[in-house]
Every structure is written in structure tokens, then in C-alpha cells.
Specification:
Blueprint (H helix, E strand, L loop, with lengths): L1 H9 L16 E5 L14 E5 H22 L1
Antiparallel strand pairs: 1-2
């Protein structure tokens, strides 16, 4: 939890994608490189995103993963 708070403070509670200031539940801390792809919980791999940008990023990553699996099959 310490890294989460550090990421929020480092980013000034501002979404690194769209720039909106976020607080409370609207402040999401995202893994830049997903843990499933070898990402870590280190501060360097964390970023503050608003809920909307976090959902968009998650959707993009899901689509990319699906495309990758299709290519493997």
C-alpha cells in the first residue's frame, strides 16, 4: 500500500493520461507493465489514472492479449 500512496503523491493525484485531478475511489493506481506480463509493484511501474483512463487501458490490454493468443493458436 505504501507504493500506491507514493505513486499518488508523486503524480500529484493527477491522471497521467488525461490530466484530471483525482481523489478517493476515482484515483486508480495502475501497473504500467501488467503483473501478468512481468511487471512489478515497484514505484517506477506504477502510475495514477482516473477510472475512465484506467478502464480504457485495461480494455486495450485485454484486446492485445486476445490478439496475441489468436496468433499462437
Amino acid at each position: 500500500m505504501l507504493a500506491r500512496r507514493q505513486a499518488l503523491v508523486r503524480d500529484g493525484y493527477q491522471c497521467r493520461s488525461c490530466g484530471h485531478v483525482v481523489h478517493g475511489r476515482a484515483a486508480h493506481v495502475d501497473h504500467i507493465t501488467p503483473k501478468a506480463q512481468g511487471g512489478t509493484d515497484l514505484l517506477e511501474n506504477l502510475q495514477t489514472l482516473c477510472a475512465t483512463c484506467h478502464q480504457r487501458k485495461t480494455n486495450r490490454e485485454s484486446r492485445a492479449g486476445q490478439e496475441q493468443r489468436k496468433g499462437e493458436g
